[in-house]
Amino acid sequence: MKCVKERGVAHVVGLLAAELRETIARLDFDELLDRAHVVALPMRVRFRGIETREAVLIDGPAGWGEFAPFVEYSPEEAAWWLASALEAAYVGLPAPARDYVEINATVPAVPAEDVAGVLARFPGCRTVKVKVAEPGQTFAQDVARVAAVRALLPEAKIRIDGNRNLSVAAAQALIRAVAPLDYAEQPVAGVEELGQVRAWLGATGIAARVAADESIRRAEDPLAIAATGAVDAAVLKVAPLGGVRRLLALAERLPFEITVASALDTAVGMSAGLVAASHLPPVACGLGTGGLFVEDVARPRRLVGGRLSTAPVTPDPARVAGLAAPYARQNWWVEHLRQSYQALRLRLQA
Predict the structure, then answer these.
(1) Fold held by 9-93+319-349
(2) Among residues 2, 5, 129, 131, which one is catalytic?
(3) Is the backbone peptide bond immediately before 315 cis, with ω within 30 degrees of 0?
(4) CA torsion sign, 183 to 163 to 235 to 255?
(5) What are 151-183's pLDDT values in tens digits?
(6) Active-site pick, 5, 129, 157, 237
(7) Cβ neighbours around 116 below 10 Å, total
(8) What is the C-alpha separation between 311 and 313, in angstroms, rounded?
(9) Is there a contact between 287 and 307 (Cβ–Cβ < 8 Å)?
(10) Which of 41, 152, 163, 327 is deepest in the core (most CB within 10 A)?
């Protein structure tokens, strides 16, 4: 394992487990392709601009893996998502450390009058994450959405997630309007801007923390933020960070409270997130997004008392076949898989 003070590609690749690095080095792409299934899952509501979630599922010798980078991601960035899929499919996930993980409810950028219907799918959840600042949404709509959550669940902790879409001034105005908050997740684009928001919160005394998501998972060095003092918490996602073991290695080195969250994973990817969360101190995790799908590739986990079981699930072959993506999209994903495979191997050689 590389020293935490080192920086650059060699440093972050060094956080990949040796067995996974060896697997990637010897894996033949044609073998990988033979094990791949491209699926398209319809969404109940638009989420992060997505109405159909596409993914490549890999039926590997050690289990099922999921490769589902968002379509705008380059092969170089998607390479980490492939590393995560290969860990699950060829190395196998670690055993869970706990039987259940507490999750937060997730409220997409829906009208305020639809919030009750969304929350009904999250029985027992005591923490709620609300999407804000999505394209086409207004300040008033965001405030009304948070207010609807608070009216329905007055004792709940509330988080907002801006996905980097706000300016510092706009983030300050929104936080002021909806506080108190557990935290504001990545309301602004960069680490410097996150630090400005955090400093403003400290000066004003407004009850809210700042959490980083994209400033960690989309950074060349995800540990660089540790020394900046810009945030109070970190939201870590298994797939974009290269797998469960690499996420846990990063979590050991980040001096923040960690929330494990979904990257809009199917049931396959969700298994990895639940395992990762079970190895960290208990925090309500963003791993309940399976309820946003009309249908998933496996039978949905049952939410009991705001918690999900960490027991593994296996995709149903009939569901996988029935959710097969259109032929043109399958071709697109095969090519993206090929390019990401090449990019991942180049990373290991750097």
Answers:
(1) Enolase-like; domain 1 (3.30.390)
(2) 131
(3) no
(4) negative
(5) 999 999 999 999 999 999 999 999 999 999 999
(6) 237
(7) 12
(8) 7
(9) no
(10) 41
